[in-house]
From TrEMBL:
Main location: membrane
Family statement drawn from the similarity comment of this UniProt entry: Belongs to the ATPase A chain family.
Coiled-coil zones: none
GO molecular function: proton-transporting ATP synthase activity, rotational mechanism
InterPro entries: ATP_synth_F0_asu (IPR000568), ATP_synth_F0_asu_bact/mt (IPR045083), F0_ATP_A_sf (IPR035908)
Alphabetical UniProt keywords: ATP synthesis, Cell membrane, CF(0), Hydrogen ion transport, Ion transport, Membrane, Transmembrane, Transmembrane helix, Transport
Cellular component, GO, one term: proton-transporting ATP synthase complex
Keyword flag Cell membrane: yes
TM ranges: 33-51, 90-113, 119-140, 161-180, 186-208, 220-243
Protein role: Key component of the proton channel; it plays a direct role in the translocation of protons across the membrane.
Transit peptide found in the keyword field: no
Membrane topology: Multi-pass membrane protein
Name of the protein described by the UniProt record: ATP synthase subunit a
Amino acid sequence: MGALVVAEGGAQFVAPGPQSFLYPEILPGVTKPVLQIALAVILVGAFYVIASGRLKLVPGKGQFISEYLYDFVRNGIGREQIAAKDLRPYLPLLLTMFTFILVNNLFGFIPFFQLPTMAHIGFPLGLALLAWVLFIFVGIKRHGFGHYFGKTLFPPDVPKGVLILYTPIEFVSTFIFRPITLTVRLFATMFAGHIMLLVFIEGGTFFLEQSVIGIKFISPVAYVMAIGLSFLELLIQCLQAYVFTMLTANYIGGALADGH
């Protein structure tokens, strides 16, 4: 936790840090991020239930959005990563995952919430572990335990002498690093983006409260930067929902591939 001292009365600016993400309990064991997760579950579930229950030839706004999301996930993510004959059973998961992550990320842009839920590492870790368990499960189910791990770690086209290096590297990268990188990529971008926003917003407020006129002029610059960063973070929030879902689909597609 750093601090910037701006003179006159020795006023001190405490830079935002991990402590900015600590929220008091609303109920025992329930904090603001937990409520946001629960709200996201309700919103996503209710949206798709309502949209799919009132299908019309000429779609309304809700049906149009749901069809657009479905088409985007199916054609922009699923078909690019999973063979067409295997895709259909995994589309509901990919669509739900994309929408769920997107809603939780967008909470950081929406007034009142102003906190991307995925900036708390436990939530992206849970999703990453789900993806990890799933791609291993479908690989074993499709190919059998021994064949799946054998083809992954000991491919026949790799010379035996190279396997000494290849096998441990492939094991670590496939079965250890994948959930770690999925978690860190989503968590770090949401955490860092929100920290940067807080720096400019709280810094602008701090400068505005100073009595020195020259320092007050810095405040509008900080607020303008905060607005610009908000829209940049909005882009990254959407992008990270796509990346996480795309990589999950890629892992599932790789586990199902005939090459295994």
